[in-house]
Amino acid sequence: MINTETKLFAIIGHPIKHSFSPVMQNAWFEKEKFNCSYLAFEVPPKSLKKAVDSFKILGFAGINVTVPLKTGIMKFLDYTDKAAKAIGAANTIAVKNGKLYGYNTDHSGFSSDLISKHIKVRNKTVFIFGAGGASRAVIHALKNAEAKHIYISNRTYEKARDLAKTFKITAVPAEKIKTILPETDLLVNTSACGMKRTDTLPFEAAGITKNTVIYDLIYGRKTPFAKLAAEKKLKYFSGEGMLINQGAHGFKIWTGIYPDTKSALKLFKKYTR
């Protein structure tokens, strides 16, 4: 029951109607018997400051931030944790006494999901396709996990090159991707490739080996990376595990409790059925 004591939480992004987070977070609040409610708001980048000010005025207790606002939110935060600073983006905010405390749980959500799926990264070679905001968190996680080599490429090579310089990894032009695939242990898609039905694989993958694992941050869709895995009979994982785990880490920041991720996965399957 919502009353005057209900703590309010929300996710903001643009677009936001597809988000599973309200379903997941409200289920966790209900299970733990917390008097909380989690909402979703469509916030275009140009309105971000107004939205942040509104949340503070209305007394929201926490906010999740998704694309394309994760980097833009940084300048409005009073505090950021080490991960958010290193990554340059925040996706979880706790509001305390009118101050905004920013965290990045994308990297920990990715790491937690790799561990749960028994995907070993230490001393392995990883190739990332995509140089957007999500790739920053993935790179941070992989470096913390002591990956041996991390390569990155992107449709716009300059973005991959700039990100490679920032994180001290190796950028690869599209035409040279085929040369690193034979040594790739883990291929991670952090790009939007697969969000459209007409999308095709953005590089030649003939050299990929049977031991390569594909991790696709996109979930709920038959992406070109999923098709590649099926054709080559490779292990393939989509991004709902990262989504759920990053949300769980955020829930713990707000409540001190790490919620049941298995129940969230069952809920996700019903939600996307």
What's the rounded overall pLDDT mean?
95
> Segments where pLDDT lies below 50 for 5+ residues?
none
Secondary-structure-based class equals alpha/beta
What overall form do the CA principal axes indicate?
A: globular
Subunit organisation of the chains: single chain
Q: What is the rounded Rg?
A: 19 Å
Question: Short description, anyone?
Answer:
This protein is α/β, with parallel strands linked by helices. The chain has 10 helices and 12 strands.
Description of the molecule:
By secondary structure, the protein is α/β, with parallel strands linked by helices. The protein has helices spanning 21-31, 48-58, 82-87, 106-116, 133-144, 157-167, 177-180, 224-232, 240-255, 261-271; strands spanning 7-13, 36-42, 62-65, 79-80, 92-96, 99-103, 125-129, 149-153, 170-171, 186-189, 213-216, 235-238. The strands form 2 sheets. Strands 2-1-3-5-6-4 form a 6-stranded mixed beta sheet. Strands 9-8-7-10-11-12 form a 6-stranded parallel beta sheet, sandwiched between helices. Strand 11 (213-216), helix 8 and strand 12 (235-238) form a beta-alpha-beta unit. Helix 1 (21-31) packs across helix 10 (261-271), helix 4 crosses helix 5 (133-144) and helix 9 (240-255) crosses helix 10. The longest helix is centred in the C-terminal third of the chain and has 16 residues, at 240-255. 42% of the residues are buried.
